[in-house]
Amino acid sequence: MAKTEEPPISEDTIEMIESQVKKGKARKFFLIYKGASIKTLVVFKKGPFGPKIMKAKKDGFKGDVCYGVVTGSGKNLFFQLPANGEVAAAMKVESWEEKPPTKKAKLREFLNGCGLSFKPEFNMITKVSDAPDPESESDIPAPPPPPGSAVADEDGDDALPLQSQPESATASQNSAGQNPTADFKQRLAALLPRIKAAAGTDAGDNAKQKVSEAGVFARKQETNRANVLLDEAEQLLKRTRGIDGGDDDFARATKLAETLKKLKPLADRIIDSDQNRRSELFDAMARIAGEIKAKQFDQAKQSITDFASFLKLLSTQQLQGTQREGADWITEFTTLRDELESRLFEAQRADREGATKLSAAWDYAKEQAAAGNFDNSLKALVRLEKAINQILAVPDSVEGDSTNANQTPTAEALSRWRMTQAKVASDLEVFRKTLLASEAVKSDPRFRFVSAASAEIPNMLPPEGRRLAVALSGNKEPNEVIDAAAAYRDALQSSRRLEQLEQFANASLGVPLAVRETLSEGIEYVENIIRSAI
């Protein structure tokens, strides 16, 4: 039962089924299920699946999700599932399915338990032309699923309905002559070599089960039922291609290849923006194609999922104008670079002997930024800022630290905060390199994707840190700086992601990572400096 005691089917879904679906309207649906147990069914007309799935899971319905379009006719409900990516797009659903999530008997039991007396079935839709449109405004009822699309339960108790049987089923039953038992045996003898040739394939094993069940009915002299089962076995064997594989393999390979093909335009766009990615992305696609060719379908499906996530990550980075170390470091570098540029020339004029060293530090920072190493470039600018402050400082007439004589409290706090950020960036980079050097990670076939995703580690820092950096660099009022510092401290203390990252670094990699502690110390230092000036 869901945590919030929500009913498995909401009143909205019941109303949608009773008033629209059973009258022939096509509507979107999703099932959340665990194993063979259905947890909830949601039916709706328009809008994305995501928010509705999130709400269902928030209500306590946990498990896998199956997407499709449901149509109906009277007491019959047809839960139509897209069998490939093109059909899924035509049906306006999120994903395609290889097979139904559970038996239709379980679905019927679930509906009856919720007070809905319907006869449901699952239908696998393989052609775009057969895909129902759940958002159609037409008053014309949706056509029934195509013949042969209904999925029979594997135990044989629920055979395909007669209207969904191939024409050969009726023909074979009518062709039984005056000796139906002899006709059955003749058909069975013709099927056995084909079943033997298909041994080891899903279709071959299912056909063998159908033939075994047919034999039981034949011995009971129920030859009509026995011939129906032979028809089903023949349909399964038509999908096979001999000992080396069958249409089960062929269909899976085709679906996976189609899905991979759909990712190529996105990969091409990324390569157009960053030619350095060409070899990496092409190699990944070639490796996945090799997995499909070798019939490593589960591995290929996982690789495609990882590759799609990787492409999405790269695309997002390009859209945001970021590179490997995240937007915060770029912004900090740009802000500090602009502030130091005019002061750099002033410092060079004031210290002719040190001008060359200052220029070298400036050039190094720009080179690191151009290469995308914004944490290194920021650390270089922080060191350069300290040198410039020392050169341009004017000693007071009283005893004191001449290096900070002309530095305002806000400038001093900003300088310290940037050093703190640079320290954290360095620690995270050490963690990232150690992670990628781990043998367990290096030996994983998804290493390239992990490598790219690891560049996002700095972006795990709470976004409130940006507010503090802006308050310091923008010369905001002291109270604004203190408020921003307090907000960042609270965000750090409540960040479960950072806590887990630190625990993993220390326990699994042996890397002493204390990001929250380092940042908290920097925040405390900033607060003390600002408060001393109030």
Structure description:
Helices cover 60% and strands 7% of the residues. It is α+β, with helices and mostly antiparallel strands and 534 residues long. A five-stranded mixed beta sheet has the order 2-1-3-4-5, sandwiched between helices. Strand 1 (27-34) and strand 2 form a beta hairpin. Helix 10 (278-293) packs antiparallel against helix 11, helix 12 runs parallel beside helix 14 and helix 15 (409-437) packs antiparallel against helix 21.
List the defining traits of the structure above.
alpha+beta; 5-stranded mixed sheet; single chain; 534 residues
Radius of gyration: 33 Å
List unreliable stretches of 5+ residues: 155-177, 241-247, 320-327, 394-406
Nearest-integer average pLDDT:
76
How helix-rich are the residues, as a percent range? 55-70%
- How many β-strand stretches? 5
Largest sheet properties: 5 strands, mixed
**SS content category:** alpha+beta
**Order of neighbouring strands in the sheet with most strands:** 2-1-3-4-5
Q: What shape does the CA trace take?
A: elongated
- Order of secondary-structure elements: HEEHEEHHEHHHHHHHHHHHHHHHHH
- Roughly what fraction of the amino acids lie in strands? 5-15%
Calculate the terminal CA-CA distance, rounded to whole Å: 57 Å
Helical segment count = 21
Oligomer state equals single chain
